[in-house]
């Protein structure tokens, strides 16, 4: 047994394998979030020592072109100087006060200015908290209980939203989650993505990822978001966009601007924290007025609106202009086309769906429209060998087939070319294994 408290003898730098063995002694599965454990792809996670721009380096000194980017926050790439400086300066002034600060007002103002229809928001510390609190607010504001969500969409790990929760749960090969009581999900209805569900006047909220990015990448079918909007208007249910991934990524105003269909409530996270723990939920002044201290829906947080997180979020949003979105989209287009071609040339059938700068990768000839079709692609089993072959060539995709591919403004043309070249070799390796 490895003693996790003792550094590896005679070796200043532990290897990935050594660190993982020690991690498994003190952290369940060796990780603090299940998808990091390589359970669905096999092998040992690389332990990151540092990161800069499009690249991460592990403790053994291996460099990877990184398409995980913290699963979304890294839109500027790793350690962008403006964010590092903002966080360092903020830290010197104190890391948390339990009293309001100017940066909370500035960040909320920036977000409301960018997202069409967003008037007010509350900052929290994770996307999970944002979605959980938005549901409570929707129930409090409507006086109704039922919520509708879509299979394969992830809204964090609060009990009532874990039903059919996409990537994290799906990558573990679990059908559901132990410890979530039937009561906790009794008012949660799970419907297939891209089909208009039955929404009636007992429905408090319909939660949707406006682009589903936790079952690979699945775009909304034409008319899907418009249909949800109309049905919610008709029944008085609130439409809740979970923009934790799409927010400030698809466009300055997120999916709301990208598709031109406004929800009643929004959830945000990831990009708005610039890599620090953050989330937010918001809506109209009238709806947000139901929240304590103005109204009867309680919600709170010791670290909500944290000085470091708001400094990082502000610096990130300030760095994102029209040119950033054009660059992100151009990078993603080039990568999508290159990956598709490289895989096809090797004789491996695959599709690379793209919405704005978000990419997915599905093996097989069909572009999935919902979770069942995504799962059918994953059942090919090709993601794991492809992932491994890419990692050995210095390209880090997410260690699970249901995750999106995240590009950043820091990915250069050379990074993309190297990735496409690696994909050609990796695909040939996969094809050779198949035949
Ligand atoms: C990541 C994610 C969440 C949860 O955010 P955490 O910060 O991990 O709690 C919620 N919704 C979506 C769409 C996400 O991708």
Molecular structure report:
It is a single chain. With 435 residues, this protein is of the alpha/beta class. Helices cover 37% and strands 14% of the residues. It contains 14 helices and 16 strands. It has helices at residues 16-26, 81-92, 102-114, 127-142, 167-171, 182-185, 224-235, 254-259, 285-288, 307-319, 322-345, 371-378, 383-392, 413-434, and strands at residues 48-52, 55-58, 63-66, 120-124, 146-150, 188-191, 203-208, 238-242, 265-269, 279-283, 350-351, 354-355, 358-359, 362-363, 395-396, 405-406. The strands form four sheets. The protein has a seven-stranded mixed β-sheet, sandwiched between helices. Strands 1-2-3-15 form a four-stranded mixed β-sheet. The chain has a three-stranded antiparallel β-sheet with strand order 12-13-16, with helices on one face. A hairpin with a 4-residue loop joins β2 (55-58) and β3 (63-66). α3 packs parallel to α10. The protein is globular and about 60 Å long. The model has no long low-confidence stretch (mean pLDDT 94). The structure holds pyridoxal-5'-phosphate. Residues 126-128, 131, 154-156, 209, 214, 242, 244-245, 269, 279 line the site of pyridoxal-5'-phosphate.
């Amino acid at each position: 047994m490895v003693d996790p408290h003792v550094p590896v003898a005679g070796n200043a730098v532990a290897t990935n394998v050594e660190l993982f063995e020690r991690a498994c002694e003190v952290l369940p599965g060796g990780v603090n979030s299940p998808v990091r454990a390589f359970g669905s792809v096999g092998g040992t996670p690389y332990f990151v020592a540092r990161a800069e721009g499009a690249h991460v380096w592990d403790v053994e000194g291996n460099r990877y072109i990184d398409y995980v980017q913290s699963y979304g926050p890294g839109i500027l790439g790793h350690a962008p100087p403006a964010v590092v400086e903002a966080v360092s300066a903020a830290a010197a002034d104190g890391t948390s006060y339990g009293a309001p600060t100017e940066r909370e007002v500035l960040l909320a103002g920036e977000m409301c200015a960018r997202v069409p229809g967003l008037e007010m928001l509350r900052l929290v510390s994770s996307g999970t908290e944002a979605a959980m609190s938005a549901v409570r607010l929707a129930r409090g504001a409507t006086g109704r209980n039922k919520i509708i969500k879509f299979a394969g969409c992830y809204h964090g790990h609060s009990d009532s939203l874990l039903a059919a929760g996409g990537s994290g749960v799906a990558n573990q090969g679990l059908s559901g989650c132990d410890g979530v009581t039937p009561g906790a999900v009794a008012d949660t209805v799970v419907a297939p993505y891209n089909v208009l569900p039955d929404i009636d006047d007992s429905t408090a909220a319909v939660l949707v990822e406006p682009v589903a990015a936790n079952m690979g990448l699945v775009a909304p079918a034409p008319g899907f978001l418009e249909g949800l909007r109309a049905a919610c208007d008709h029944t008085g249910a609130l439409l809740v966009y979970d923009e934790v991934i799409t927010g400030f990524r698809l466009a300055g105003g997120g999916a709301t601007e990208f598709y031109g269909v406004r929800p009643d409530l929004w959830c945000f996270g990831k990009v708005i924290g610039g890599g620090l723990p953050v989330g937010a939920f918001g809506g109209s002044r009238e709806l947000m007025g139901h929240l304590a201290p103005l109204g009867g829906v309680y919600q709170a947080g010791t670290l909500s609106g944290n000085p470091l997180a708001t400094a990082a979020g502000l610096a990130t949003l300030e760095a994102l202009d029209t040119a950033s979105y054009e660059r992100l989209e151009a990078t993603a287009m080039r990568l999508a086309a290159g990956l598709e071609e490289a895989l096809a040339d090797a004789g491996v059938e695959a599709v690379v769906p793209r919405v704005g700068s978000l990419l997915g990768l599905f093996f097989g000839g069909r572009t999935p429209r919902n979770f069942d079709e995504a799962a059918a692609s994953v059942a090919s089993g090709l993601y794991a060998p492809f992932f491994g072959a890419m990692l050995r060539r210095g390209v880090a995709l997410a260690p699970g087939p249901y995750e999106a591919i995240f590009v950043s403004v820091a990915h250069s043309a050379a990074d993309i070319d190297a990735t496409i070249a690696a994909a050609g070799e990796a695909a040939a390796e996969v094809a050779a294994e198949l035949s």
